[in-house]
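Quality-control log, excerpt.
Job 1 of 2 completed; input and output follow.
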Amino acid sequence: MADDAPAPPGGAPAQGEGGGGGGGGGGGGAPTQGGGEGGVGAPAQGGGGGGGAQINSHAHLHESVRQMKESTHTRTITKDALDAHVSGIATPMSRPLSHHSLDLDDYFVGPRDLDGHSKLPYFMRMHGSVLPRMIIPLFCIGAWATFITCICEFVTKLGVDTVLLTVLGFVVGLSLSFRSSTAYERYSEGRKTWCTLMIQCRNIARYVWVHVEEREGDQSKEDLLQKITAMNLVLGFAVAVKHRLRFEPYAHYDDIAGLVSHLDTYAKAAFKEEHLEKKRTSTWKALGEKLGLPFALSNPRKEMKRSDRPLGNLPLEILAYLSAYFEEVSTNGQMKSAVMGGQFLTALAGMTDTAGNAERVLTTPLPVGYNILISQIVLLYIFLLPFQLYDKLKWITIPGTIAAAYIILGIATIGDELENPFGNDVNDLPLDQYCAELGRELDTLMSTPCPKFTDHVDLNKHLNQPLWPLSASRYQEWRERSETDIRSALRTKVVAGKGSVGSVSMSKKEEVNEGREEEDKE
């Protein structure tokens, strides 16, 4: 079984441990280099007093590494074998890590996978770039620059003084700076909000798994299944918040259906079979969506508007069920600590507050008047560029205008994409990955019974090194010594933090020798 596998030791042992409580001298806890003073069990270079033993450090280190490998290997094989024995088949990973090569759609649809790694420099990367959304605008601007240049070259001169370029350039730069800073502030606030949500979910999951006791007898299995269900609701809350922020109001999605399908919710009642049917999208519309054309983009709120039944608020309903679970475990005495009960309610309130903050970020965009004015200023500046560049650049006006438009439109486009950090754009927050990570963390927490600290100390006392790295002595050796020796060694650790343990050992030994010389003189 996995619990029978040896756990890895806490660190490498010293070359000769001071013996436990024996030997001569019994000084104040100083580690020694030779035999003689027994000390308090700090590492010694030679033989220690009392029960000290000569240990080959290299052989012991290799043995420790071997135990760590065997422990990991045994645990993995044993847990897989246990799952197969219980279920009758090999249990697959509930949330496998997916790694796949990018296809064409991945360059346009996100969010980007944070686990991916590219060796290309940033200026050569396409994944995550806003260039695909700028192809059509740049093509139109290039055609406009070509048209104005041809008129200036073959018909009449339309060039104007470049002072207009300077004046308008200042206004455009100020507008783009405001647009970019506002968009990134919303992106950063969205990330902070989701991080707070993850922390609250981890806290409440720990409260449920550790502080809600399982009663004995026939009720033990029921209590365990209820705790697992409550843990699933914690994950379901995070997933429900993600779908709500993306205007996906139902509860039939693959990542949440198995978590909340047993609950009586408005999202479940409003679901219809027709919602499972994927509507066909024309090629031109799909191409327009990938190129970011406004007239091709669908209204993200259309599912909510088309519903003829109340959709409710799924995250809030999940929290109501978690509150009901807390009420039940408090009533039947499973949560005995009033302090932890207060922490549980505080975490629930924090989850509600965090979900509200995320909705605030989503529903409070930059006022539409700012967006309209900034867009008009940017386009006016770009369309006036050919008139101001022709006198000095001639035919180079065309590529010069396109290059300037790429810079200006690129900053404006990335600001527009970051304004909603919870969407499905490539540069949006990877909420799917965050939820999957939270699910794996909760699975890890539930993979073993609630730990009892005393049991782990007693069962693994031969591996516990309480005063590491000052001393490699085990828990049992320190247990046989006095409290004065332990506290003396703790004071030694403070001094050892300013230098090496060896230097502290020498200074302590010198103090002991000086004290003995003074006693001999007297």
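Job 2 of 2 completed; input and output follow.
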Amino acid sequence: MAALATLAACTTVTNVTPAGDGNYTVTTQVRGGMTPWGEVKASSLKRADEYCSQQGKQMHQVDMQTHGVRGWTPQEAELTFACTAG
């Protein structure tokens, strides 16, 4: 049981914030564990997609930056996106 607790990760996804020029940002941070980068990025993409869908628009990815080292330092995926008419 102790081994499972060591592998557990804590994931935080920020609120969507304006970034200027019609763009927005959202960041996912994972502390601990061995979470695959694809899952970290997917959390940011999902939040952005939900945000745009609420406006009846589609999410368009502008940029994705990643920081950290899996298993050693917190992993972050910072997504910059725009909501465009479908």
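Post-run check on job 2. The longest helix spans residues 37-54.
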